[in-house]
Amino acid sequence: MARVRLAGVGKTYPDGTSAVTDLDLDIADGEFLVLVGPSGCGKTTALRMVAGLEEISSGTLTIGDRVVNRTPARDRDVAMVFQSYALYPHLSVRDNIGFGLQLRKVAKSEIKKRVEAAAETLGLSEHLDRKPRNLSGGQRQRVAMGRAIVRDPQAFLMDEPLSNLDAKLRVQMRAEISRIQRDLGVTTIYVTHDQVEAMTLGDRVAVMKKGVLQQVASPQELYDRPTNIFVAGFIGSPAMNLLQGSLEADGDGDGARLALGDQTLAVPGPLLAERPALRGYIGRGVAVGIRPEDMEDAELDGARDGAVLDSTTELVEALGSELLVHFRITAAPVVTEDTKELARDAGADGLPAEAASSGLIARFSPRSRTAIGHPVRVRVDTGRLYFFDPVTGAGIWGDPAPAQQQKEGTHA
Amino acid sequence: MSTREDTAAVDPAAAPDPGQGAPQSSLASRIVSRLGSGLLQAVLVLIAVFWLMPTLGLFISSLRSPQDNSASGWWAVLTEPSQLTLENYASLLDNEGFVASFFNTVLITVPSTVLIVVIAALAAYAFAWLEFPGRDWLFLGVVGLLVVPLQVALVPIAQIYGGLGIYGSILGVVLFHVGYGLPFAIFLLRNFFAAIPRDLLEAARMDGGREFTIFRRVILPLGGPAIASLAIFQFLWVWNDLLVALVFADAQNQPMTKALQSEMRQFGANIDVISSGAFLSMVVPLLVFFAFQRYFVQGVMAGAVK
């Protein structure tokens, strides 16, 4: 178990493309850090550099007290769980798990003891003499885990270990990985593109985009105080609604008014007080983020002045516990590098550059009676609006007071 | 794979339709579905009999006296089983030159095959999984050597052997076979090794394996089928070779093929020696084939990566 530190780590391929740029991460002993981002963001490359499977082009990688830039994978004393599991097909489960110990010349009796203990932890005791081809997907995944934990390494590296499992099994294994990691207290770096995994597993989550680290923070802080539009749009499901708006001074009060197309929301004074930098945007355009869960059917919630958007319901997705209501307002969507990258990750070809209106998704209580084609009044929790610079995409927060922000920002 | 078989089994109506079925099922499975199992088996038996007939003829000829062989065809034993005798084999074993040639063949074939398999497996691993400068160019060279006919090398190599003093020796024959067997062997094994999922090697590296350990404990077991096929091909090729032996082996180091050839006369042949000797030379590769047969197991990679 050890601290893992990446200082300015970069990876440049011989053809000049850069997969990871100047990555700084400091992972504490026993911490569970999740690297998350869309495909091709460099998260797997970063992990493979820590593993020693990929050469480090620049920067310093430290595991424990050793700089291991030039140390081959076999001597780094880290264990990796591969996305494909990479089990040795010709070996039994027992030998698969014990392979690393055999290569390290551990005594046979000791190997037997440790393999059986690991199998016990993972519920594999009855399958020790089977070959991988006779195991189910979930069991193979466990064997891959077993191979890592039996070695008692300095750190676990996991490369999307759950992506080949079906949804139900994934939830179960997610809980199990979390339990095992906490029991063993081994420093863990976990790569995934699934933000639910990232949020549920990580002590801290590092969001990457195109090889560049965007933000490292606890899951809640990532959700509450995203550093830019990319993080805001990536964390949360359904994704945050992003709109172009403009801030105008409110005549008498200490608040402001936010114009979204032909509608207006009142920005409460306390929010402006918390984020003083926002004052500088009064009279200018601003990118606005509204989380689906910060909206509710005004009919249920009681409408307040300046906190309601009027529209027509376009689509209702009933999930039982909630309704996802799609509607449209006349504000233009935010188009920046970040939103393009998010759209690409979501599988869309690109945003309409000059659209005059944007589609929004709101999360309503199932008691809502809204129906397709009918007018809908959407109450917005204006105290939880997100603001970003429309050009740079950086979050507008004012002073860095995350702890306080986090406390006040949580749902009532 | 099982999915494909399942669909073929569940949906027989699709098979007779050539427009729909053709791209989905393999040639073999289409043949099977057209013929039905009973007819198919009859055809297979027929083909097998056709293939075996000359072998049977050779075998029976080797069990008849030269007089009988020149008087009638081998099928005469069907009516006169008393013709069968082990005399030919007895005299063959008394023929010291021929017995020596049998051992020469073994001495040529076994080292050639072993050397080719060992060197090619190591080289193939390097070509497939190690990064070193010029690797792709070197491999291109190996592929290029595949198309160089061995005849062009006969004269120059003979001269080199003369200079080295190994002309006519078994060593010379072995080296020639190894040299000409390697390009194909490396090519075959490299392509097989390259198809092994990279994750497996990386997992072994993470598990603490050095290159040679990975080669021995992961690649070799997984490469079993390819290595077994290569070994059989090489064994047959060298065992049956006549040309290289004619050029490079002198009388005392000649293998069986050359010894048999020398029994051919301008007016007829020593059918007793040739038939029994030829049958003997045929039996050994068959034994080798059956010995390695169990390594031709499909699906050894199942369960590795998913």
Mean pLDDT of chain B: 80
Number of strands of chain A: 21
CATH-level-2 architecture of the largest domain in chain B: Orthogonal Bundle
Number of helices of chain B: 15
Strand percentage of chain B lies at under 5%
Report the total helices of chain A: 12
CATH class of the largest domain in chain B: Mainly Alpha
Structural class of chain B: mainly alpha
The CATH superfamily of the largest domain in chain B is MetI-like
- This entry's quaternary arrangement is heterodimer
Fraction in helix of chain A: 25-40%
Q: Enumerate the spans of chain B where pLDDT stays under 50 for 5 or more consecutive residues.
A: 1-22
The global form of chain B is globular
Strand content of chain A: 25-35%
Radius of gyration of chain A: 24 Å
Strand element count of chain B: 2
The appropriate CATH architecture of the largest domain in chain A is 3-Layer(aba) Sandwich
